[in-house]
Amino acid sequence: MISKIAKPFYLEGLRFECNRCSVCCRHTPGYVFLSLKDLELLVSFTGMTEETFLSSYCREIVTIRGIKISLKEKANYDCIFWEKDGCIYYEARPFQCRSFPFWKQYLGTKRKWDTLLSFCPGIGKGQIHTKEEIEEWIEKVSQEEYYYK
Ligand code: SF4
Predict the structure, then answer these.
(1) How much is the pTM?
(2) How far is the CA of 117 from the centre of ligand 1 (A)?
(3) Which of 54, 63, 65, 88 has the highest CB neighbour number within 10 Å of its CB?
(4) Are 9 and 109 in contact (CB under 8 A)?
């Protein structure tokens, strides 16, 4: 089922291109929840066992739907994967990172999309993502199966 937004403001598409400035990966507390596919990909990419990966990089977060797995943060709130040159596992980064900024919470209205301008320099820049591509992201986000313990 397509989780479309009624009367989307992005009929002509939206410009976005990540310049890997790392603003969204650092300094502010938050969660990067992992899906089942994320966990499999990251375990394979790092060459760790699942047990070692979970204990090294993940924390358990209690939500109303159960216990989810999020990446850890450092004491300064940088993502545990962030090192001086950026994300050390960028090619295998979690779906939550790959799908940003095409999350339904930012796509309901132009005003919500524009709130991203205050911190993400990639908004409004680079290639145009068509309405179809954006709706494909919304659908993928709604279908992603998060890892629950
Ligand atoms: S803030 Fe925007 S441009 Fe910077 S790393 Fe995050 S998504 Fe990319």
Answers:
(1) 0.90
(2) 10
(3) 54
(4) yes
